[in-house]
Specification:
Layout (H helix, E strand, L loop, with lengths): L1 H13 L4 E2 L2 H9 L16 H13 L3 H27 L2 H15 L6 E2 L1 H21 L5 H14 L6 H14 L2 H5 L2 H23 L3 H15 L12 H13 L1 H4 L5 H9 L13 H9 L1 H9 L3 H24 L10 H13 L6 E4 L5 H5 L12 H4 L4 H12 L3 E4 L16 H10 L2 E4 L5 E4 L1
Length: 453
């Protein structure tokens, strides 16, 4: 039965659109080709996943299939963890199968089929929460708390938002235990020590490369203090996006009304992963945690009143329709961001340029770089307003353009939408310089234009 559930999930994944976010390919590509992390490119994430992908791509290259296999492995591994943890907790296969089945179906329209930091974090977060939940039941086994916090530290080294889960754990501990009891847990101090050591080792490493200031700014100051004030960065969910999310929690109404609901609280904390730029795929860790409590929710459902049961069933019906519509609309083997026209453009660029020719991509798809086997000028920055409006960023790029003098630029004409909308955003200093120095144009695809001096 477990094999069939995993096979079902894999079939759904293979037959729905896979999203390979360009950063997952471009970041390791640049790192493998001499670009210094944080100095030569803006990367506001901890280095763990980028370094892992740089090693991964040395063996498997930059085409989508290896990334798909890596992504599907992480997803199926999360399925296995949900099954194992649920079975260990409730001792029955039926409940474990039910948890995996619902996660399998619901995760598809919530964007699980895509490679991003949140997905790679999910197995670590799941394991952390399982040990934390077990510790709450068996407070004398303090090593469970240590295991929980260590796995959460690993997740934090992949993406910073996991720090909110530390706060969630702390709130639960303060409710569960008296302060005098809490102070006696040596595991808390040991975990804090391990976390500080992990941060210090990274700082020592980047300091040895002369990158400490850039590392601290981009991975600590920018995401926690600067990003939310940058133009165009905050992207809140629409009402249409909120309704499916509310439906998920309506299914868990029986558990919400139950006194012991750590799983609900921590999953709600995990929703912060989708702030300040909302998208469904940021919610995968929250969904995974939620479905660890699916068994308990089923038991509570049988004892709930008619109104709660009715609301839960309506939510199940709505999500079934939501999932079916998503699958029907996204039945394709073509990889998002790596469509045929992108490959055609990349091949064309590789033929008309020399391997040593630096190019600049203006408002266009940066994933063309690894496809064409070409490098951009240094420093490289995604043309997002929240990066290019950082003080001195455009000036640094202009210095690089002036020194390296690329023969060609590839650009996509700007859209006519909001000023700071991706695709419409025109970085004034940079765009004015390119318009003045690159005036000869040649159409290379429906959306892309090559310009040269």
């Amino acid at each position: 039965m477990l094999f069939l559930l995993l096979l079902l999930h894999l079939i759904l994944l293979i037959n729905t659109r896979f999203t390979l976010w360009p950063e997952m390919v471009v970041y390791p590509y640049l790192l493998n080709n001499g670009f210094l992390l944080y100095q030569d490119n803006i990367n506001p994430y901890p280095p763990a996943l980028t370094y892992f992908l740089s090693i991964f791509t040395k063996f498997f290259g930059y085409y989508p299939l290896p990334f798909q296999i890596l992504t599907w492995s992480a997803i199926l591994f999360s399925d296995l963890l949900i099954y194992l943890f649920t079975k260990k907790t409730f001792k029955k296969n039926f409940y474990a199968f039910a948890s995996v089945l619902f996660f399998t179906v619901v995760s598809i329209p919530f964007g699980v089929n895509g490679l991003w930091f949140d997905l790679i974090q999910t197995p670590f977060i799941l394991t952390s929460f399982y040990y934390f939940s077990e510790f709450l039941k068996k407070a004398k086994k303090t090593k469970l708390l240590l295991f929980s916090l260590l796995f959460l530290i690993v997740a934090t080294l992949i993406k910073q938002q996991t720090l909110w889960l530390f706060l969630g754990y702390l709130i639960i501990l303060l409710v569960k235990f008296k302060p005098k009891e809490l102070i006696k847990f040596k595991e808390l101090y040991l975990s804090i020590f391990v976390f500080i050591i992990a941060i210090l080792l990274q700082m020592i490493f980047f300091n040895s490369k002369g990158l400490l200031e850039d590392f601290v700014f981009l991975t600590i100051y920018f995401p926690f203090f600067k990003a939310s004030s940058m133009p165009g960065y905050i992207l809140l969910p629409t009402l249409r996006q909120i309704i499916p999310l509310i439906s998920i929690y309506l299914i868990f109404l029986p558990l919400i009304f139950k006194r012991r609901s750590e799983v609900i609280f921590i999953s709600l904390i995990s929703l912060t992963f989708a702030y300040p730029r909302f998208d469904y795929f940021h919610l995968i860790p929250a969904l995974a945690i939620l479905f660890l409590g699916f068994t308990e929710n089923l038991k509570a459902f049988m004892k709930s009143g008619v109104q709660i049961r009715a609301l839960s069933l309506i939510a199940v019906i709505f999500l079934s329709i939501f999932t079916t519509r998503y699958i029907l609309k996204n039945r394709t083997w073509e990889v998002r961001f790596f469509e045929r026209d992108i490959y055609s453009a990349g091949v064309f660029i590789s033929k008309i340029t020399l391997p040593d020719d630096p190019i600049y991509i203006q408002n266009g798809p940066d994933q063309i770089l690894p496809i064409a086997g070409r490098l951009p000028t240094k420093p490289w920055v995604d043309e997002f307003p929240w990066y290019l409006e950082i003080a001195r960023t455009q000036e640094k790029i202009l210095e690089g353009l002036t020194k390296q003098k690329p023969k060609y630029t590839i650009f996509k004409p700007y859209d006519n939408q909001d000023k700071y909308e991706i695709g419409s955003y025109r970085p004034q200093k940079l765009a004015d310089f390119l318009d003045a120095h690159y005036k000869n144009h040649f159409q290379i695809s429906d959306t892309l234009v090559k310009s040269y001096k």
